[in-house]
Structure formats: C-alpha cells, structure tokens
Amino acid sequence: MFVAIVGVVGVVGVVTAYGDYSDYGDHGNYSEYSDASLVDDILKENGKLENSTRELQRAKHERASFSDEAREELMTNPELRPFLKKSGSFETMSEDAMRKLEASLEKNIAQDEAALQGIDRLIQQVNELQLTQKPPET
After folding, report:
1. Is the dihedral of CA 12, 17, 23, 24 positive or negative?
2. What is the mean pLDDT of residues 90-96?
3. pLDDT tens digits, residue range 26-68?
4. How far is residue 83's CA from residue 106's CA, in Å, rounded to a whole number?
5. CA separation for the pair 112, 100 (Å, rounded)
6. Contact (CB, 8 A) for 77 and 108
7. φ, ψ for residue 92 (rounded to 5)?
C-alpha cells in the first residue's frame, strides 16, 4: 500500500511539474477577452490607411514633378518651338498640329534608327577585321 501511495504521489508530482499551464497564465491580458482587441484592430487598420494615404500623396507629387520636368524639357526643344508658337502649349494644340508634330518626330526617329544601324554595321566590320587578323607576335 505504501508503494501505491508513493507511486500516485510521484505521478501527481510529475504531472504538476511538467504540465503546460500557459493557456491559463495570460488572464492579465484582458484585451484578448473583451472589445479592446477590436479597438486594437481598428487602430492598426487606421495606421495602414494613413500609410497608404501618405504613399499615394508621395506618388502624386513624384508624378507631378516628373511631368513638369518633361514639359520643361519639351518646351526647350528647338524642333518643337514652331508647333508651340502657334498654340502656346501642348494642351491647346490642334489635331492637325499634333499630327504634324508626330510625323516630324517619327521622321527624326527613323533617321536616328538608320544612323544607329550604320554604326552597328561599322562595329561589326571592325570586329570581323580584329578577328581575322593575327595578333602581332612579340
């Protein structure tokens, strides 16, 4: 009988010593058990909304500054001056003037592409010459 009592006391002692009671130890944090958790969630979402609003304002500012810089660059372009003198700005240009401007720009792009192709051909010829010639022996 003594052995049985010692065995029961030993089992109870082991269960008590190694038991996991962590679920019951957080009663001091009442925010998990009341509406305070909803308030915390609302505050977190409001913070996210404010961050998103700041990001949107920053993106709008960057876009505006980029478009202003692009407009300034276009206004100082000497090829565009004849088109701008008639209308004053890009926003008030007529459809005909826009078509003429597009045709002029497409012509310039085609000329630049042709020049680039010529440069590419010259580079290829130089590379072929370098590959076919033996290096000087020293």
Report:
1. positive
2. 69
3. 555 555 556 777 778 888 999 999 999 999 999 988 888 877 7
4. 15
5. 18
6. no
7. -100, 10
Joined together, the tokens standing for residue 94 give 């007529």
CB neighbours of residue 97 within 10 Å:
16
Rounded Cα gap, residues 73 and 76, in angstroms: 5
Tell me the two tokens of residue 90.
Answer: 């890009």
Which backbone phi and psi does 25 adopt, to 5 degrees?
Answer: -90, -5
Looking at the chain, the whole-number percentage of residues with pLDDT higher than 70 is 62
**Which of the 8 DSSP states describes residue 32?**
G
Rounded to a whole number of angstroms, the CA Rg of the chain reads: 39
Spatial CB neighbours of 32, under 8 Å, sequence gap ≥ 6: 26
Share of the chain above pLDDT 90, in %: 24
- Predicted TM-score (pTM) of the model is 0.36
